[in-house]
Design goal:
Radius of gyration of chain B: 20 Å
Structural class of chain A: alpha/beta
Strand content of chain A: 25-35%
Number of strands of chain A: 14
Helix content of chain A: 25-40%
Largest interface: A-B, 34 and 29 residues
Largest sheet of chain A: 6 strands, mixed
Oligomer: heterodimer
Structural class of chain B: mainly alpha
């Protein structure tokens, strides 16, 4: 899957403008505001994390983009034009759970997907067959091509969902909890596939609760809460690198920074004997780690720090709970 | 557009063919054919008439029941298992998706009726009766058209409401359609005029007995052309109206629950 997709007009790939959606499920219950004037832009070739507690409006946003539900007001634009049935040709969608008919066979689903999307790389029956075979091999389902979907394990079903979302080489990929329910190995494969798709230039909207996915895959993030966009920004600006060291408190660390002429930290968290320092970039953290190790301190952790986003999210989750 | 319609139709046909109701439906068809044969051999006179009366009643009831269940189930299942969400994420409009579902269902019903007709011929052959000619095939064809109308009715209600309510509403409308003309004919001059007018209006536009030519099953000649054509057109118009309205409703309202 390395071919360049069909060319689309320049500019943002997807824009959601002041979209409002209210659900009225029961005449005796008050209407539920799912989205309250949401505006969102997906930049071309970027991976955007769609975050927020359950019930925040993430699924509604996805369904609006896909045209499964219509907004009460506002509009969804794809390459500057109102989203239409034809626009969906450029979109791939992987739902959170296996949402494929249980009695269909694995290869059948992919073949039908190619027929529906009619991508330029699979116009003839032979090309379609080859494409299905290649995709099944890529996701490790070649042995199960004729198995019914209802008999697949959860991991296999997720791999099939990935295959059906990407087989037509979409330009916008909407992923709803792509790694949920996967074992660590399968999770790693899934993240690798998403990374590869991103490298290919695909714009990705990733709906997730996992900060590791946000920090490793996403360029920017938006946080929804009760239908409102409450936070957004670049992942790089909100994450950084952190290291944990034991045996030094805040005063000791300040003195250490002065004597060793080390750059300032962005944030410091103290938990008993363990201090966690957060830095904007890798260089600052690396200088600190080297100096600490030289002086014989034990550095227990060195890695990505996405607590700024995570703590913000957790506060929303706690409020919802 | 036609390609998308074809894919949805094919997928629906495949799903229904693999549905658990499919084999019981075929088993029921076989049973009706066999039981009709047995019943006719017990009779002392008009064996053929008994065979056809019994068989056509079974054909009508089984087919309509299966059509209604499938019509409601295929929409309800797609909504419940979420496959509708994935299919409509593809470049398929909601209206076209619904038409494709109906076409797939119709194809499956035509296949079931074809199997039944083959079984029926086999029954006639085994019992050494005269095999079916054009008049008998026409009777079956019109009844098959009745199945397709029932299926369109089921799809209509399944689009409007949840499966349990849709089943109830479809059966109610089906029974109303089967009995409307009979009730209309049974009304006496003492019946209040407003009631008579209402029942007559319903019977004029919603009369599913139009597809039941069981009383002509033993005739040697084809029924008159014009009335038969009228019946056929009536069925096609009903299907067109029900499917079109369902398609428009489906296009205009949210297809997934909140």
């Amino acid at each position: 899957m390395t071919e360049t997709p069909a060319t689309l007009p320049e500019g943002p790939l997807l824009q959601i403008e002041q979209v409002r959606k209210v659900f009225r499920t029961d005449v005796f219950k008050p209407a539920q505001v799912a989205l309250a004037g949401l505006s969102l832009t997906l930049r071309r070739g970027q991976c955007t994390a769609l975050l927020g507690p359950n019930g925040a409006g993430k699924t509604t946003t996805i369904r609006l983009i896909l045209g499964l539900i219509a907004p009460d007001s506002g509009r969804v634009l794809f390459t500057g034009r109102p989203m239409s049935t034809a626009s969906k040709q450029y979109i791939g969608y992987m739902p959170e759970t296996a949402k494929l008919p249980a009695s269909l066979q694995v290869a059948e689903v992919l073949r039908q997907q190619l027929l529906l999307f009619a991508p330029p790389h699979a116009t003839t029956a032979k090309q379609r067959r080859q494409c299905v075979e290649a995709t099944l091999a890529e996701v490790g389902l070649s042995q199960h091509a004729h198995k019914r979907i209802g008999r697949l394990s959860k991991g296999m079903a997720r791999r099939l969902a990935w295959a059906q979302a990407t087989i037509h080489r979409p330009q916008l990929l909407i992923l709803d909890e792509p790694a949920s329910g996967l074992d660590p190995l399968a999770r790693r494969s899934m993240l690798g596939w998403i990374q590869a798709e991103k490298s290919r230039g695909t714009t990705i909207l990733l709906c997730t609760h996992e900060m590791l996915q946000v920090s490793t895959l996403c360029d920017d993030y938006v946080v929804l809460r009760r239908g409102h966009l409450v936070a957004s920004g670049l992942v790089a600006a909100s994450t950084g690198v952190c290291l944990s060291v034991s045996g030094l408190g805040e005063t000791g660390l300040s003195r250490f920074a002065l004597t060793e002429e080390l750059p300032p930290w962005r944030a410091l968290r103290q938990d008993g004997f363990l201090a966690e320092l957060s830095f904007v970039d890798y260089d600052g953290a690396a200088m600190w780690a080297a100096a600490l190790l030289r002086k014989g301190y034990v550095v227990t952790r060195f890695g990505d720090d996405y607590r700024a986003i995570e703590e913000q999210l957790l506060s929303y989750y706690l409020e919802e709970a | 557009m036609l390609r998308a319609l074809g894919v949805v139709t094919l997928q629906t046909f495949t799903l229904l063919r693999r549905d658990r109701i499919f084999w019981p439906a075929l088993a029921a068809a076989s049973f009706i054919a066999a039981a009709a044969g047995v019943a006719s051999s017990w009779g002392t006179e008009e064996l053929m008439k008994m065979l056809y009366d019994y068989g056509l009643l079974g054909f009508q009831l089984t087919g309509s029941t299966v059509a209604i269940f499938w019509g409601v189930k295929m929409i309800g299942d797609a909504r419940q298992d979420g496959s509708m969400e994935v299919q409509l994420a593809a470049p398929v409009s909601r209206g076209l998706w619904l038409v494709g579902k109906y076409c797939g269902l119709s194809a499956c019903l035509v296949m079931v009726s074809a199997v039944f007709i083959v079984l029926w011929e086999a029954t006639l052959f085994v019992l050494h009766y005269r095999l079916m000619g054009a008049p008998q095939l026409l009777v079956f064809a019109l009844m098959g058209l009745g199945w397709l109308v029932d299926a369109a009715l089921a799809v209509f209600f399944a689009t409007l409401t949840r499966p349990s309510l849709a089943i109830f509403a479809t059966f109610a409308a089906w029974i109303a359609g089967l009995t409307s003309a009979l009730i209309d004919q049974a009304m006496t001059p003492e019946t209040p005029p407003q009631l008579r007018a209402t029942v007559s209006t319903i019977a004029r536009y919603w009369d599913l007995q139009q597809f039941n030519l069981a009383d002509k099953a033993l005739e040697a000649h084809l029924p008159a052309f014009a009335p038969t054509l009228d019946r056929g057109l009536y069925g096609l118009v009903l299907i067109a109206i029900l499917v079109s309205v369902s398609s428009v409703i489906s296009s205009r309202r949210d297809v997934l629950p909140a």
